[in-house]
Target: Carboxyl-terminal protease
Amino acid sequence: MISKKKALIGVVIIVILTTILNLTLGNMIALKMGQKVVVTRDTYEFYQTIKNEYGKMFALKDFLETNYYREIEPEHLVEGAIKGMFEGIGDPYTNYLSQREFEDLMTRTQGTYGGIGVIVTPGDDGMVTVVSPIEDTPGERAGLRTGDKIMSVNGEPISGDRLDKAVEMMKGEPGTEVRLSIWREGLTEAMDVRIQREEIRLQTVRSEIVEGNIGYVRISMFDEKTANDFKTQVDQLQQENIEGLILDLRNNPGGLLSQCVEIADYLLGEQVIVYTEDRQGNREVERSDRREVALPMVVLVNEGSASASEILAGAIKDGERGTIVGTTTFGKGLVQQVKPLDDGTGFKFTVSEYFTPNGTNIHGTGIEPDVIVERPEGIEGEPVTEADEDPQLEKSIEVIKSKMN
Model:
C-alpha cells in the first residue's frame, strides 16, 4: 500500500504538475481579461481523467501540507515520490538512487569502496539475502555465506524492500565496526556477527598453475578492470605452456555485462554468447568472433554464481566448449541499465531478460552443472575453510586431465 501511494505521488509530480500549472496560469490570465476559457473535448477529457485518477493524491498532499505538525520540505517530498514510483514497480533491481547512493554504485563498479564486501539481494521471503561474500573481504572472513538472511544492522531491522537503505547501513568508513544479525538455515536462533569495515579494493582476477600444466583462473566479480586483467593473466599462463584451463566462478555475484561479454569473446570461437529480449520482443545478440583460447576448459560454479557469471558459464556450456562442475547457480536472468541524472542522482532499471545461446532463461532456476559436486560443510553447517579439501576443485582437475589426454 505504501509503495502504491508513493508511486502515485511520483507520477503526478514528474508528469502532471507542469501541465496542470501551465493550464492554470493560462486560465488565470484569461479570466483577468474577462475572457472565457475554451478547451477542446480531448483536452477536457484528459484533465478529467487526471482528476479522477489523481484527485485523491492532491487532496492528501494538501492535507499533509496544512496539517502535518512540522513544515514539510518540498524537495523531500519530490525525492520520496520518485523513489516510491520506482518501488511501485515491484522489481528489487529497479531503483532510484540519491546522489550518495549513485556515487557509491559507480565507485563499486570501478573497484573501490568502504564496507564489508558482500553482495545482497531481496529474497522471496522479503528478507535481505546474501548472494555471496566477495573473496578476501571482511564479509568472507567473518563467515558470511550464500543464503544467509541479514535481519538487522546495528540493531535496526532491515528488509528486502528497502535494499538500498540496508546496503547503505552496512557500508561506512574503514576501521569502523558493524554488527549484523544473521539467520541461517539449520540454526535454532539468529547469530550476531561483528565485522570491521575495510576499504574494499577489489582484485577480481587471480591465477596460478596447478598440477604442473593446468591454468587456474579465479574471477570474483566483473568490474571495469576485470576483462583486461583476465586476458593478461591467461596470456601469461599460456606462455607457461599450460594444457588446460579451469575457470572458477564460484561465489561470483556478477557485475558489468560488457566485461563478461569481452571475456567470453576472448575465450570462445564464433558463436552466440548471450541474447537479451525486451518487453517488445526486440532482441540484441552478443556474438564472439573466430579467435579463441584453444584449450580444454572446465568452469566451476555454485549457488553464489549469479548474473554475469551465469552468462559466461551458460555460453561455455551451450557452445560445448567446456564442462561445468559444481552446484546449480543462483538464477538471475535480468539485465539492468544505469542512468545518471543532471543533479548527480541516477537510477537503475531492468531493461530486458537474457537467454543463453540455446534460448534458456535461467531466472529463478539457475544453470545446472554437467557434473554435480557438492561442497562439504563443517560442523553445524559452517562452510569448509581454505585449509580443508575442495572436492569441486579436485573434480575439475580430474575432468580437465581427462580432456588433455
Notes: The longest strand covers residues 346-355. Residues 2-87 form one domain.
